[in-house]
Every structure is written in structure tokens, then in C-alpha cells.
Design a protein that fits this description.
Length: about 450
């Protein structure tokens, strides 16, 4: 099984100002969880995280309005409050969806602490939006009366801002790992985790701040060794030049490209930028992992590779001269050798390193062999399609071992990729597909297995 972290934003639970009540938020969560249970049925070990920007803002505002009657709620306690309340929503919705399908699986929400440094420069520049969207006039008035810092948020209105220090570790990572190994669906790092500092003697001290849930989710994903970090958001893909005549939607980019776009100011500071930064950091720190940002309602398509913006490891990075394996070859795989699938351990055993996702030139057809593995065959009659593949760097000494462990009827041949490059690839023999189902219309093995509900 492979591990996925799915990180929902707090704004994904509050669709607009007319749908911000607790029952309405629960309805939104309930509509969100079916694709998550789909993932569990397909074999994913699942951790769900969530934002809390609007919800923390609501708690703080209630506290301010009632300050003559009850003591105010510190920000770290407000984060803890939202972990309990939103965690309860996800646990209840997930349990109910599992019950509807006749499935039995433990679901647990973990109160999670994110360790931050007290000298983090974020404390001098509060930028994390919390609370509901306001008009500029209303936000300015509240800033004057309440001592807030405020900022305009991605053209949607004005919001209160608080400090958002960067987490250095998650205190509960080991416990969360034990839970998912035991088969539990875990809700964790809610609202980015409760921000705390650690004294030299190990004492935990609460900090008045809000940790970005995307960065915290990426950190947890790295610490767990997750294979996938998915951040559902309000748009189907990430765009550069968003809202301008030059707007361009991105399909697959490398970590280096993502960081270049961030440096160029292509993404909103309080909205898309931390998502892209979190995914890029996770992918850079976790070899072979993938991060995806896309629309919450398109999770099935994201998993099939037909929606969302995927961030993958840099292909231009090469080892130092004294580390270069001059005998390594590039190998395109199109089926069960892919990451997380049943023969992927063969790649690890051969010392292979994931390079990137790619597509072939449209000169191939694809079949399923008894729904056990695919067979990709080159055609010359103009009926070919592009097939989704993964490109791996394989030591020459390990290539034979991979081939020996492949199912009968598959062999290694040359494959032409969509960018014009040629690599070695796993090719099927024509006799192998006689009487088998052709699945070329799916464009790849992952998309087919996702559509058919195969694990």
C-alpha cells in the first residue's frame, strides 16, 4: 500500500458567506469524503488534513465580542478548538460513508502539534489570513478598533492576518504512522497543527500563531514517507498570470519551475503560493513522490492523471561527477512497475530512480491483460494514442533483473516520447493481446484502473 496525504483548505468547507454555519460546513465535508473512501478501497493508506482560516477567525471574533463576559481565547487554543470540531466532522462523515458501503475501518482525529521557532521572522510580518472575507471599509474599521493587521486576499475581499511561522517537525508523526499501519484513516495536522515551541527540557509551550496547513501537511507527508501529497482547492489547476490575458493553466511542472514561478510572484501570497511551495518542498525532499493541486470535486480525475497540476522532481538535476553511473539507462514503464503498484518493488530492487512522468508519441495502443497488467504495442496505421508512462533511471546491471521479473509477453524496446526523445520502454508482443480488452481510450494504466475501481 502507498500513503497519501489529502489536505483540504478551510475555505473549501465554507463555500461562501451564506453557507458558513456548522451544519452547512458538515454538509460540505460529507460531499467531500466519497472520493477519499474510493482511495481507501483502492489500497491507499490515507491521512486527511484540513485548513481552519475562516473557522479560527470566527472563534476569535466571537471571543472579541464576548470579552466583557468571558476570557478571550488565545490563538493556539482556537486552533485546537478547530482541530476538534472539524476533525469530528471528517470522522463522522468518513464513518458514515464507510458504513454506507458496508466497510469497516477505524477513523480517528489526532490533536496535532507543529513545532515552530520563536525567532521565525514571520512573527514580524503577519501574513496568514484568518476569518471571513470583509469589505475594505469594514476590515479597516476592525483593524483600528481591535488592533488587527489586515490584507487583501486574492481579489476576494479583506481579511485579518496573523503570524504564520514555518513548522520544523510534527510531534505526533510516529503515532500517526502507527495508526495508518494498523489500517486507520487518520485526520491530522488540522489547521496546520497547534503551533508550539519546545523548551530545552522538552516542555511544550503554546504560541500565538497559525501554521500554514499546506506546509505542515507537506512536512507530515515527508516525515511519513508518503507517496502523494494532494491539495484540493477551488480551481482545477494552478495558473500563472491568473486573471490576466496571459493566464496559462499548468499540467505538470518540476520543482525548479515551481520555485521560479514563486520567485516571479506568479501566485497569491496567502492563497496559491503556499500550496505550490508546500508541494514543491515535499517533492524535493521525498524522492519518487508526487504532489498535485486541483479541484476537490475532481479527485478521481486527479488520481487518474487527467486533472490537476502535478509537481514532480527536477529532471535536470544530475549527480556529481564522482557519483555518476555511466551505465545507467532511461526506462519508460507503463503499468505495474509504476510507483505504488504491485511490481514497483522490482524497481527499487534494481536500484532504479524515478525521473519524471511523461507521455509517448501517439503511435501506441494499450490493452489490459486479464486486468493484471497492461501491454503497450506500437502501431503504424495512424490509430495510435499517447500513453502515460513514468521515466526511470535504471542501472544497466539492474535492467536484466527487471525484465526477468516481468510477466510473459513483455520485453524491452525503444519508446518515442512526446517531447521527441527516445528511451527504452516496456513493450508488449502482439500475440499477447489476442482476445484481451483494448483500453487505449483511457490513455494509461492508472487511468484505466481508477475508472474500473481496480486496486
Amino acid at each position: 500500500m502507498t500513503i497519501a496525504i489529502v489536505a483540504f483548505g478551510g475555505n473549501a468547507l465554507v463555500t461562501d458567506a451564506d453557507h458558513d454555519s456548522i451544519p452547512q460546513q458538515y454538509e460540505t465535508v460529507s460531499a467531500t469524503v466519497p472520493p477519499l473512501v474510493d482511495m481507501v478501497e483502492r489500497g491507499w493508506k490515507l491521512v486527511v488534513s484540513h485548513g481552519n482560516g475562516p473557522q479560527v477567525g470566527f472563534i476569535l471574533r466571537r471571543s472579541e465580542l464576548a470579552q466583557d463576559e468571558v476570557d478571550p481565547v488565545p490563538v493556539d487554543y482556537a486552533v485546537a478548538d478547530t482541530q476538534g470540531a472539524i476533525g469530528y466532522m471528517f470522522v463522522k462523515a468518513l464513518r458514515n460513508e464507510l458504513a454506507r458501503r458496508g466497510l469497516s475501518r477505524p477513523v480517528v482525529a489526532v490533536v496535532t502539534h507543529s513545532v515552530v521557532r520563536l525567532d521565525d521572522p514571520a512573527f514580524d510580518d503577519p501574513t496568514k489570513p484568518v476569518g471571513s472575507f470583509l469589505t475594505e471599509a469594514r476590515a479597516t474599521a476592525l483593524a483600528a478598533s481591535q488592533g488587527w493587521t489586515i490584507a487583501e486576499d486574492s481579489g476576494r475581499g479583506w481579511r485579518r492576518t496573523v503570524a504564520s511561522p514555518r513548522p520544523t517537525t510534527i510531534l505526533e508523526t510516529h503515532v500517526i504512522g502507527r495508526l495508518i499501519d494498523d489500517g486507520a484513516i487518520v485526520v491530522a495536522v488540522g489547521g496546520g497543527g497547534i503551533p508550539v515551541a519546545l523548551e530545552p527540557d522538552g516542555t511544550v509551550v503554546g504560541v500565538e500563531a497559525v501554521v500554514d496547513k499546506d506546509i505542515a501537511s507537506g512536512l507530515l507527508a515527508h516525515e511519513l514517507g508518503a507517496d502523494l501529497l494532494m491539495i484540493p482547492t477551488g480551481v482545477p489547476r494552478v495558473a500563472i498570470g491568473f486573471g490576466t490575458p496571459d493566464e496559462t493553466w499548468l499540467d505538470t511542472i518540476t520543482v525548479a519551475q515551481a520555485r521560479d514561478y514563486i520567485a516571479a510572484g506568479q501566485f497569491g501570497k496567502g492563497s496559491m503560493e503556499p500550496k505550490v511551495a508546500a508541494v514543491a518542498d515535499f517533492v524535493a525532499a521525498t524522492p519518487g513522490a508526487v504532489g498535485v493541486i486541483g479541484a476537490a470535486e475532481e479527485i478521481p480525475a486527479i488520481l487518474a492523471g487527467t486533472s490537476g497540476t502535478r509537481i514532480v522532481g527536477d529532471t535536470e538535476a544530475v549527480p556529481a561527477d564522482d557519483e555518476t553511473d555511466t551505465d545507467a539507462v532511461l526506462l519508460a514503464v507503463n503499468g505495474t512497475l509504476m510507483r505504488g503498484l504491485k511490481l514497483s518493488p522490482n524497481m527499487a530492487a534494481a536500484g532504479a530512480t524515478f525521473v519524471r512522468e511523461a507521455g509517448t508519441e501517439p503511435v501506441y495502443r494499450l490493452w489490459t491483460i486479464n486486468d493484471d497488467h497492461p501491454a503497450m504495442i506500437r502501431v503504424t496505421d495512424g490509430s495510435g494514442v499517447a500513453v502515460a508512462v513514468e521515466v526511470w533511471e535504471v542501472p544497466a546491471a539492474g535492467l536484466a533483473e527487471i525484465l526477468l521479473n516481468e510477466p510473459p509477453g513483455l520485453s524491452i524496446g525503444k519508446v518515442r516520447l512526446h517531447d521527441g526523445s527516445t528511451v527504452l520502454g516496456v513493450i508488449g508482443e502482439p500475440a499477447l493481446v489476442e482476445g484481451q480488452r483494448e483500453i487505449s481510450e483511457f490513455g494509461g494504466w492508472r487511468a484505466y484502473t481508477a475508472a474500473e475501481g481496480l486496486v
